[in-house]
Design goal:
The structure holds two protein chains of two kinds. By secondary structure, chain A is α+β, with helices and mostly antiparallel strands. Chain A has four helices and 13 strands. In chain A, a hairpin with a 3-residue loop joins strand 3 (about 45-50) and strand 4 (about 50-55). Chain B has two domains: about 1-165, no CATH class; about 175-285, Cyclophilin-like (Cyclophilin). Chain B starts with a strand and ends with a strand. Chain B has helices at about 35-45, 190-200, and strands at about 1-10, 15, 55-60, 65, 70-80, 80-85, 85-90, 95, 100-105, 110-120, 120-125, 150, 175-180, 200-205, 210-215, 230, 235-240, 245-250, 255, 260-265, 280-285. A seven-stranded antiparallel sheet of chain B has the order 7-6-9-4-1-12-11, with no helix packed on it. A seven-stranded mixed barrel of chain B has the order 13-20-17-18-15-14-21. In chain B, strands 2-3-10-5-8 form a five-stranded antiparallel sheet. By secondary structure, chain B is mostly beta strands. The longest helix of chain B is centred in the first third of the chain and has 10 residues, at about 35-45. The chains are: A alpha+beta, B mainly beta. The interface of A and B includes residues 53, 131 and 192 of A.
Amino acid sequence: MNVLLTPDSIRPCGDHAVLVDLGTQDRRRALDAALQASPPTGLVDLVPALQTLLLTFATEAHRADAVARLRSIDVDALPVTAPDAGQPIDITVHYNGPDLADVAAHLGIVPAEVVRRHTAQLWTVDFAGFMPGFGYLTGDAGGLDVPRLATPRTRVPAGSVALAGSFTGVYPSPSPGGWRIIGTTDAVLFDADRTPPALLSPGRRVRFVEGPR
Amino acid sequence: MSRALRVDRPGVLTLIQDLGRPGHARLGVTASGAWDRAALTLANRLLGNAEGAAGLEVLLGGLSLTALQPIMVALTGAEAPLLVDGRPAAQYAPVALPQGSRLDLGTPTRGLRCYLAVRGGLDGRRVFGSLSSDPTTGLGPAPLASGAELVVGSDVAGPLGDTDLASGRRGLDELVLRVALGPRDDWFTPEAIDLLDTATWEVLQASDRVGTRLSGPTLTRVRQDELPSEGLMRGAVQVPADGQPLVFGPDHPTTGGYPVIACVLRNDADALSQAVPGTRVRFAVRRP
């Protein structure tokens, strides 16, 4: 059955942008890949998040044309995007984070099992956001779902490796944050002078490797 | 390319800004750029520069510069006293700075942010194609500091311009911002939507280039569940848990997890750049 994008799933953002709510991560990934492969005329930014895509345009007319095109796309007929064919990158983590014990207690396991689950699975950068170079990574095995801290920290150091919801992420630079910190890495997550600037761009696959504490 | 201006006093916060670095939001990189885009582009037109040439965004005046070579400048945006070697000079017009002369910019009498363009535009190291300074993430050049020397480029499009029609909305006591509902207006009560269209809010002191915080009637939600983070844009009117709206500015985060009830139309989104704390803000909902 064809499930076209309904007007309800294409939501206005001012006069130059639309938010497309795909309802599921898989549908969002499929449309993101299709729009990257064939961008609408006048597209300035395409911002993926969990189940949505934000599209901003150079002009209102570009937006109108793109909305007409979006309404004709059968998202469920789009090819399911294959994971990034490139080799996963290794990120060495010192599992010494201040929340490691709390995370283990929350999950009913010992801290060493948190480390095992974090290092044993293959993670994929699902989308980026929050700050330059911050990626939201989803794992292929799960088992590390924890809520955010009730009260965010006012300062999380750069290189903090953390968990929230079903995601893991690494803070590229110091910032306030509510994710639970399980370790630190020396990896440089973002460098505007590097190509590519972000280590964890959407689609990138990652393995975390345990380093000395 | 040469060192043309020395910073003697930087003022409260003076940033190099052009029209920003759009196109990298999927990496978490926000566009930044001049908040009052009309003011920066007007200053550039007055000098015959390309519209998007980099200039200075000066918050609350207090800037003093010395010209290290003869140079033309133009001041737009907030109304503020401009002195060259102690003598008043015109705003909204090209002004010649002789070599060794001193420029002093006083505190604005209307509005918050002045834009000082120089003929040729400022030059420097571009990050994602832009000279804009984003003090929140540290991308781009640092805020101006005493003793810094500014490099002038060759971003000239033509001869000096005529005095142009100046935007008349800087520092108004009350702003009316046109908005389009959505993307998450259905998360709010019908009463909240009515309030958005009719009530008045006040600009709070705790506002900056990330966002303008407003105080007024509470916008009540019909849904209390958590919204997964989604893309944000300049002009988005986000409503955090306390029901007091926040309008995102040029240094907004690229994603956020509170519902956006409406977005300010592009041509109205920059007016908040000049809104002093206490300015009254109303929203006019544009019906489709």
